[in-house]
Amino acid sequence: MRVRNAFYDNGLFEKERPALRVISVGNLTVGGTGKTPLVEFLIKRYLPANPDQLPQTATLSRGYGRKTKGFRVADGADTAQTLGDEPVQIYRKFGRLIRVCVGERRADALRQMQQLFPQLRQVLLDDAYQHRAVDPHLNLLLSDFNRPFYTDYPFPAGRLRESRSGAKRADAVIITKCPDTLSSIEHLGFDLSLGNAMIEDTPPPPTRAVEKAKAKAHAKTYRKARRGERRARGSRD
């Protein structure tokens, strides 16, 4: 992932900035950080005042877990098998007030959406932080309050999909699953930790094999020093 990101950052891999306004919602962590609830919050923000108006907002995701492939627009016949769990959940909640689409190749899917639905004004990309082929207009990074990304490490040492320095790509970092009462000191601690995470990238902790090798090396050094001491005492005697 580090090499792939470097290729995108240095222009060796091409990124596409869509004509449609694109808002990406994602994270650095494997597992849930509240992406879908945030997508639903944004959907409500952009719902048309007139329910008879053609939808101006769409969602686009990979459609994780579906049995189908390629680009697909949700309709009433779709299930989790054809669309994926989260897209079906969103479609059933908002119906025809928005467009719900899935597609593995997000850049291609966005072009198809613009052709099919010229009235669209914005697209919400769900779980697309690592999808570098699309250059979103707004990149939102989510992090769980109980396990912030800046205390975690890349897989397999931790649960990060990529290095924590990937947070630099975010336009905003949103801390999810916060307690109802958050003290000003805790708030300041998050701010400072996030700031450090943007400029530093701590290497992963040593694995058990590394720790065992270090302990073996220390033991070998200690035994060598002890032998030297015994020889020194013998020569004095």
Describe the structure.
- This protein has helices spanning 2-9, 35-46, 80-83, 85-94, 106-116, 184-199, 208-236, and strands spanning 21-27, 57-61, 72-73, 99-102, 122-126, 138-144, 172-176.
- It has 237 residues and is α/β, with parallel strands linked by helices.
- The protein folds into two domains: 2-199, Rossmann fold (3-Layer(aba) Sandwich), CATH 3.40.50; 206-237.
List its traits.
Rossmann fold, 7 helices, 2 domains, alpha/beta, 38% helix, 15% strand, elongated, 237 residues
Q: Helix and strand layout, with pairings?
A:
Layout: H1 2-9, E1 21-27, H2 35-46, E2 57-61, E3 72-73, H3 80-83, H4 85-94, E4 99-102, H5 106-116, E5 122-126, E6 138-144, E7 172-176, H6 184-199, H7 208-236
Parallel strand pairs: 1-5, 1-6, 2-4, 2-5, 6-7
Antiparallel strand pairs: 3-4
Overall geometry: elongated
As a percent range, the share of strand residues is: 5-15%
* CATH topology title of the largest domain: Rossmann fold
Helix content: 25-40%
Main sheet? 7 strands, mixed
Radius of gyration over alpha carbons?
25 Å
Low-confidence stretches: 203-207
- The N- to C-terminal Cα distance equals 62 Å
Q: Brief overview, please?
A:
The chain is built from seven helices and seven strands, in the order αβαββααβαβββαα. With 237 residues, the chain is of the alpha/beta class. Strands 3-4-2-5-1-6-7 form a seven-stranded mixed sheet, with helices on both faces.
